[in-house]
Amino acid sequence: MYEKVKKFWVCLNRNIVVNKRESFLGMACCTLAGILTGMMVSPKKTVTIGSHNTGNSAGLPQAEDAGSTTEGA
Hints:
With 73 residues, the chain is mainly α. It has helices spanning 2-11, 20-41. The termini are far apart.
């Protein structure tokens, strides 16, 4: 097993020409994989964005007859 690892390690010492597009795509893939891994590994948070308020003015007294108004009559 050690010989295989040593042989693999020696073959990594070669010079290879890589263009900028391949380098950029490799970095982008690694970055996105890291973000995705971080999201999957992190503990679930109970963060709420917004207040889940439905706009019904909770806590305020409701009008008894909200349907009829006497403005401009």
